Amino acid sequence: MFNKFLHIKKIILTSFIYFLFVSSLMATENITVQINTTKGYKISDQLVGAFYEDLSYAADGGLYAELIQNRSFDYSSAEKKTWTPLTSWTLVKTENKKGQLVYDMSSPIHPNNPTYAILKVGNGDGYVGIENTGFDGIKIEKGKKYRFSIFARQLSNTPSNLIVQLINQQNKVIANGKTKTINQNWHQYEVELIANQTTNQAKLLVKTNNPGYLAIDMVSLFPKDTYKNRKNGLRKDLANVVAGIKPKFMRFPGGCLVHGDGIDNMYNWKNTVGPVEHRKGQRNIWGYHQTVGLGYYEYFQFSEDMGAEPLPVIPAAVTCQNSGASITGNWGEGQMCVLVENMPALIQDIYDLIEWANGPVTSKWGKLRAQAGHPAPFNLKYLGIGNEDRITDDFQDRFSMIYKAVKLKYPEIQIVGTSGPFPDGEDYDKGWEVADKLAVPIIDEHMYKHPDWFWSNLERYDSYNREKSQVYVGEWAAHIKYEGSSHNQSTVEAALSEAAFLTSLERNGDIVKFSSYAPLLANLNHVNWRPDLVFFDNNKIQLTPSYDVQKLFGENAIDVFYPYQQSKTDNKFTISTGKISAENKIVVKLINGEAQATNVSLNFNDDIQSVKSVDITILKSDQLIDKKFKVHLQKLMQTDIKDFVQNVPAYSVVNLIFQL
Ligand code: AHR
Hints:
Blueprint: H1 2-27, E1 28-35, E2 41-42, E3 50-51, E4 89-93, E5 99-104, E6 116-121, E7 128-132, E8 138-140, E9 145-154, E10 163-167, E11 173-178, E12 187-194, E13 199-208, E14 212-223, H2 236-244, E15 249-252, H3 256-259, E16 282-284, E17 288-290, H4 296-306, E18 309-314, H5 325-328, H6 343-358, H7 364-371, E19 382-385, H8 393-409, E20 414-418, H9 426-438, E21 442-449, H10 451-456, E22 470-478, H11 492-507, E23 512-517, E24 521-523, E25 534-536, E26 541-543, H12 545-555, E27 560-561, E28 564-566, E29 573-580, E30 585-592, E31 597-603, E32 610-620, E33 630-640, E34 644-648, E35 652-659
Parallel strand pairs: 1-31, 3-15, 15-18, 18-19, 19-20, 20-21, 21-22, 22-23, 24-25
Antiparallel strand pairs: 1-28, 2-27, 4-7, 5-6, 6-14, 7-13, 8-13, 9-12, 9-14, 10-11, 10-13, 16-17, 25-26, 27-29, 29-30, 30-35, 31-34, 32-33, 32-35
Helix pairs in contact: 6-7, 6-8, 11-12
Bound molecules: alpha-L-arabinofuranose (AHR).
Alpha-L-arabinofuranose binds near residues 53, 255, 256 and 518.
């Protein structure tokens, strides 16, 4: 019996020792990395940027700080079956007062803004008004100032003014103001409101006691506190999140939004500049209404405010290949083209855009920019033509026409072409053929793929021909669905593969000029596409692990790459090393997609023995399906880096900044 006990004890002990041995092996790998700081080569200092598209209510109801939904009464059933010009608006009145709300188009402020409302107010005591609940409620903060404005016109001979109020869920007034007397021509009235309570479910009430008929349009409410305090500005917290990536460029306004759902739906920049009441809103290809209050002027201004180069994309005179799918019956074969006889006008629009952005205030279009508040040129350098189009013969004809025309008149503008929707296949090949034939300076590639695809494509650009066009990885994201979920998720697994891919873009930064994750923003209540980099609603912002990765690479963008040798390469572990020349810093990024930690010995050349400091950022996680990284920060002062060893935890991204 005793012997048997001893035997069992021995087995348990041996198993335990074996477990310790195996888990210690599992726990850490050892990798040596030899970094050659003498053979550094120049890479793009604009590698990480932002791609902004109004989908998932990213603009109206999102980044654009307007709080009123359907402010211009232009919603229609053509945009959504259930919509009318009065959607989002409710007539409110006291019991014994007669009142009516109708819409009209006979005498608008501007033909681009055709529909407006008429408030009919009857005799008797009390008021008649209209109420708007914004985009899923209006968020109002105590003590903050709000800029209310309205275009109004008295249609009867009974002078009146408008009372403007913010109302909380209990129907209590939390801000109050009054317009001047409304006159008989369209005129804009402004009222500043200060809220005495915080609520995320406020309503705007605009009312009057005086009988008569009032035409109203462009009913608007903005927080005064917008990004950089701009009028007609951007929601500050969201804009700060985008700016937090430190994007070196911003591509806008899409995406599919650019080439549009049919010829009339192509994005036309001219409809999006000038006074907002003169702009032409339209159906958004993503199934809702775009006011274009966030238009080209605001996109250029936002880019400038973030220190990012503007990269507008214009349609290549063809529509989205899916737009005519209901006619052809075949998904991907519904591309429609602008008629050849209309091409000169389209090309003129592009010339006008360049003049609007860069021309002097004395030029026709430069003057408009100046009138909008920006006399200095925006210094446009890049222009995208086309968005992941099918590379058909019609596309090629039109792209070539536009390309040659722009090159002739504005040779200084660098054009970004397209290689179709996928990172390989027929359109990709043909897109590159076009780029080769015309010597297009930069070509846009798109890739939405499984994390494993990114891990196995770390060498994709190593073999690209350095003599050909540069690459813009214009839309990319790791897509992964987990059991039980019908849609792609933003997880650590996705983000780690993206970080790994970014190291390969840095290594190939001599030919990969730009990259931008897509899509950028999604309103949690109206998601068209998943995953996105940042989710939000009126009250909160949810940053994804992919955002942390983009931010880390954006903030630690190197401009010189150091070649290196890694002792082990057959696992999900990769690195990038280089220099931020202007700051005299060496940056090493270490990506570990494995379930065990790795000890990395970094060997620099002998000339770098010690550094003033090392800043260490670790983004790590216990599980691949986690939706958040744990962040660990550490700083070492005056460090000997001759034999520098860094532990890189399982599932982590480690960024080391060596201050020389
Ligand atoms: O990023 C979302 C969409 O993906 C873009 O609009 C389009 O270009 C691509 O298909």
